[in-house]
Design goal:
Radius of gyration: 20 Å
Order of helices and strands: HEEEHHEHHEEEEEEH
Number of strands: 10
Structural class: alpha+beta
Helix content: 25-40%
Number of helices: 6
Shape: globular
Strand order of the largest sheet: 1-2-3-10-4
Number of domains: 1
Length: 214
């Protein structure tokens, strides 16, 4: 999954380089490490401050099975609601939920996919009738898949991110190879010892500054 994630990231910087507009009103999505240096399993939404676990971390796991995933348990994550996922999409620049491919969704879709990961892709080159550089977000309230949120970006390939959310109506033990799970958490509060150490450091800097000013 890391190769797919890297590929979508390359597309994002590629289209930005040729001049497609990137809205400054969008959230800044940053990645954090969860277990080891460089794993980048967490994506932070700068608007809400919520931390999202990569959907590929629980790919292929059922709703119930994912609850026991080591990353979920150790990280204190919970399943996201439909509204929380919608807010993440909107903050990322994917705001058109008309269930059709829209050019306005494209940059937001590939930026978000480059962070949270994708669960599958297909080649669509050689089919010039199909539109490219577009994005699709499935939030259809009348869909049979009310527990699954789908995000698609399309260039010469069609990248799809499918993941389960809270309150799934289908059997929670069903598993799908191409589905992950949307998990989030509130940013952990620093431990008292860490806060104390930070305070001591600030006090030390203030003392040094006073000494120099004399």
């Amino acid at each position: 999954m890391l190769k797919i994630k890297s590929f979508t990231l390359a597309i994002f910087f590629g289209v930005a380089a040729v001049g497609l507009p990137i809205s400054s009103a969008r959230a800044i999505l940053t990645e954090l490490d969860l277990n080891t240096s460089g794993d980048k399993l967490i994506t932070v939404d700068s608007v809400t401050g919520l931390q999202w676990l990569d959907i590929t971390a629980t790919q292929g796991q059922s709703y119930t099975e994912s609850l026991s995933d080591p990353d979920v348990l150790a990280g204190g994550f919970r399943h996201a609601t439909r509204d929380e996922v919608a807010t993440l999409f909107i903050n990322s620049g994917v705001a058109d939920f008309s269930n059709t491919f829209q050019a306005s969704n494209f940059l937001g879709a590939i930026d978000l996919q480059s962070k949270i990961g994708v669960t599958g892709f297909v080649l669509i080159s050689g089919q010039p009738s199909r539109p490219v550089t577009q994005g699709f977000s499935d939030f259809d309230p009348f869909s049979n898949f009310t527990d699954v949120v789908r995000l698609v970006s399309r260039t010469d390939r069609e990248f799809t991110a499918r993941a389960l959310i809270e309150n799934t109506p289908r059997p929670k033990t069903n598993k799908f190879d191409s589905y992950g799970n949307y998990y989030l958490r509130v940013a952990p509060v620093p431990e008292p010892a860490s806060v104390l150490l930070f305070g001591v450091g600030l006090a030390g800097l203030a003392w040094i500054r006073r000494r120099r000013s004399r």
